[in-house]
Amino acid sequence: MKSTKSLKDIINASNMDSDMTEKQINILSAAIELFSEKGYEATATSEIAKKAQVAEGTIFRYYKTKKELLFAIPKALSKVSLFEIFLEDFNEILNDEHDNFEDFLRKIIMNRKKFVSETAPILKVIIQEVPFHPELRSKILNTVIFPSTENGISIIEKFKLKNQIVDMPSTTIINLIITSIFGYLFVHYIALPELPENEQDLEYLIQYILNGIGQNSTLKNTPR
């Protein structure tokens, strides 16, 4: 069974001073889990109240409508620095010295698998809401995407100098790696968690990426 972290777990782990009450945190944690499992429309506030162990009226003391509760989730996630947590151990890998591209790739995949599997319900709600919240999208771009891409490009350049990966534009290589890894993790842990996962699948994913951008790739002579 996959172990996941709730909003409450993340708040406790981040040691942040939250302006939310314990009941609010429990309500939002319950809403995230149920919206992720059943979808927003199919989830009743009575179910959220039961899971949060509060009276249904307590929800409406904090949030006038179910929609207001939904919109409170991205705001809460922004406050708890989920995106900084996303990068915390990831940056350790990026900042390490790596002699071998395959080993680097394996560390990245295993690290992101752990993060996505632990925070799948929260990530699912974020993905659902990002199109409707420009401020959330901006925060993701500025605190996650841009910094990690910048660090990733410098690493890719080093492996290109070592002739371990093809001489393609580094931004293209980063995009291909991200698409492959997060496409796989999205399907298995967010979109279709019931899908059977072979223990060798991640190894196949590594080889799939290496065959595409490794030095033996047929893409190495592709016009730039």
From TrEMBL:
Tell me the organism.
Clostridium gelidum
Superkingdom of this entry's organism? Bacteria
Q: What is this protein called?
A: TetR family transcriptional regulator
Q: Which UniProt keywords apply?
A: DNA-binding, Membrane, Transmembrane, Transmembrane helix
Q: Does the keyword Flavoprotein apply?
A: no
| Keyword Lipoprotein included in the entry's annotation | no
Pfam annotation, one family: TetR_N
InterPro entries this protein is in?
Answer: Homeodomain-like_sf, HTH-type_Tx_Regulator, HTH_TetR
The residues that cross the membrane are 172-192
**Record Gene3D superfamilies:** Tetracycline Repressor, domain 2
According to the entry, every stretch annotated as the HTH tetR-type domain falls at 21-81
Q: At which residues is the DNA-binding region annotated?
A: 44-63
